[in-house]
């Protein structure tokens, strides 16, 4: 069974890693020397990053990345940009609307100097980029560093730890578009059972496609942990896998985990009852400073363990122990 980070440690470990990394790079005699060239100058000196430099100039971000920072930049190669433009129907960089290009590029920038060491030590977790999400939020970035370093399930690091005066560069093989909720569900293996459940319910619900494309969003999604699904399956002798659950029932259960709107943890008002996409209400309460959910069937005490995994079309919170159940009597 895979383990989630607790809500209080989620992203805090990343912040600690940033601080430690910044100190380790430039302190002591055995550390990496910091050059006098900034991120943009280093990129401009690399022929394989000429598309990135052109994109930064077009989006008016080159001066930003010449600033003090520090920044961590995931730098797509020229081939990565060519593939992205072709896949999205753009003839060239000039065809991409400047505001769209700006957000794509900011999705490759993280505040702080993050070398590969803390990513490898944490193995799997999330960073926060400078790209804009709903309601003034910033988009999350998932990394898997178990075997190499990969971001959002699609972009692999091909050269790590290129040090600049104002940060660090990791060269990647794909452009990382702003993520949807489905991006994280598909790439974070902690969400594997939830992803399987969405696939199984697709014939009875538009939810899987909406989470992928962002139609009708933003959404707030409470994703049950694998243990929560195990506990649900144990209640019925005919259920060995989530795909064994009748499709309409499974669709109703999944939609009972989704709210309209981008509701981050700081937006939650304890005690409020909120309608789910399925129709029944859930109640979010606070106990000893921890958030818990009472579902539509009246089952209390489902803890929210991880909060604020932010996508372009909504936000994910992870719940443990229980799958939320609608009121099946209605």
TrEMBL record:
<dbReference type="GO" id="GO:0031012">
    <property type="term" value="C:extracellular matrix"/>
</dbReference>
<dbReference type="InterPro" id="IPR036378">
    <property type="entry name" value="FAS1_dom_sf"/>
</dbReference>
<dbReference type="Pfam" id="PF02469">
    <property type="entry name" value="Fasciclin"/>
</dbReference>
<dbReference type="GO" id="GO:0050839">
    <property type="term" value="F:cell adhesion molecule binding"/>
</dbReference>
<feature type="domain" description="FAS1">
    <location>
        <begin position="178"/>
        <end position="323"/>
    </location>
</feature>
<feature type="domain" description="FAS1">
    <location>
        <begin position="36"/>
        <end position="176"/>
    </location>
</feature>
<dbReference type="GO" id="GO:0030198">
    <property type="term" value="P:extracellular matrix organization"/>
</dbReference>
<dbReference type="InterPro" id="IPR050904">
    <property type="entry name" value="Adhesion/Biosynth-related"/>
</dbReference>
<dbReference type="GO" id="GO:0005615">
    <property type="term" value="C:extracellular space"/>
</dbReference>
<dbReference type="GO" id="GO:0007155">
    <property type="term" value="P:cell adhesion"/>
</dbReference>
<dbReference type="InterPro" id="IPR000782">
    <property type="entry name" value="FAS1_domain"/>
</dbReference>
<protein>
    <submittedName>
        <fullName>Fasciclin domain-containing protein</fullName>
    </submittedName>
</protein>
